[in-house]
Design goal:
Elements: H1 2-20, H2 32-56, H3 60-91
Helix pairs in contact: 1-2
């Protein structure tokens, strides 16, 4: 379901880009309408790239690695707490 949302949003952004490009102004170099057009296209391409990144699952490997590190830190903390409990029992 998550991938489906990304596909829908990316296709909407692509459609919005195809609809708007013919209506944007690229005539006078350095004018405000041209600067706005360039920034708007850059933002639209950034949105499309972000959704494509999510669809391709590039972060999946990184997410798995972070999960493994978190489990290891949790285990180390449990070992530390158990070791202190044993030390407290020794002192009695």
């Amino acid at each position: 379901m998550k991938g489906f949302k990304n596909v829908v949003y990316m296709s909407l952004a692509i459609g919005m880009l195809f609809y708007s490009v013919p209506q944007l102004s690229f005539r006078d170099i350095g004018s405000l309408p041209m600067i706005f057009s360039m920034v708007w296209i850059a933002m639209a391409l950034l949105v499309i790239a972000a959704h494509l990144h999510q669809i391709l699952g590039v972060d999946e490997e990184k997410r798995q690695e972070l999960s493994r590190i978190k489990r290891m830190k949790k285990w180390q903390m449990e070992q530390l707490v158990q070791g202190r409990r044993k030390m407290l029992q020794f002192r009695k």
